[in-house]
């Protein structure tokens, strides 16, 4: 195991191959929970926990159970059940220790269950055998898979939080903008500019 490779996998998954801006997964919470920074921050933490834990569990189940017994066709339904259980656990914990944040996130918290970013990461790490970093294909073993999962979840949360700070600033002067740009149209334009900015990192890492 090369530690520098793990660092590059984390940075690459976080910035260069960001799950939202380059793979377009998790757009629903990206748009829906990004109006305020505190709700975006809370959702980001919840998604980091859910993606990391659920991917570790699903990767283990797939490797030692589904593949072993030729049950790969059950991946999607098994993974959804695991993700649902993890999200329910997060809900109960958040409701107990952070009720204000729990109420603020509202319907978007249980919707993590159907967040395609969470399921997408779980499926990607079992379907792909390698991960390309700096033009080199690395085997997607346990350590590399864990680095990719952490980087992806951090990238999701980072982009969500940055987007929320931009939307908060835009909201203060949104009344001066044409009605045709207010709300979702301007949010999508901002997201597109962010995607182009992150894409510029492609030649760096």
Average pLDDT confidence is 85
Number of helical runs?
Answer: 8
Strand content: under 5%
**What is the count of β-strands?**
2
| Uncertain runs | none
Biggest beta sheet attributes: 2 strands, antiparallel
Q: Give the C-alpha Rg.
A: 18 Å
Overall helicity: 55-70%
Structural class, by secondary structure, is: mainly alpha
How far apart lie the N and C ends?
Answer: 20 Å
Strand arrangement in the largest pleated sheet: 1-2
Shape: globular
Order of helices and strands: HHHHHHEEHH
Quick synopsis:
The protein is mainly alpha-helical and 205 residues long. It contains eight helices and two strands.
Describe the structure.
It is a single chain. The protein is mainly alpha-helical and 205 residues long. Helix content is 68%, strand content 4%. The chain has helices spanning 3-16, 27-32, 37-66, 75-97, 99-105, 116-127, 142-172, 184-199, and strands at residues 130-133, 136-139. Strands 1-2 form a two-stranded antiparallel ribbon. α3 (37-66) runs parallel beside α6, α3 (37-66) runs antiparallel to α7 (142-172) and α4 crosses α6 (116-127). It is globular, with a radius of gyration of 18 Å. The two termini are 20 Å apart. The mean pLDDT is 85.
Supply database-style keywords.
globular; two-stranded antiparallel sheet; mainly alpha; single chain; 205 residues
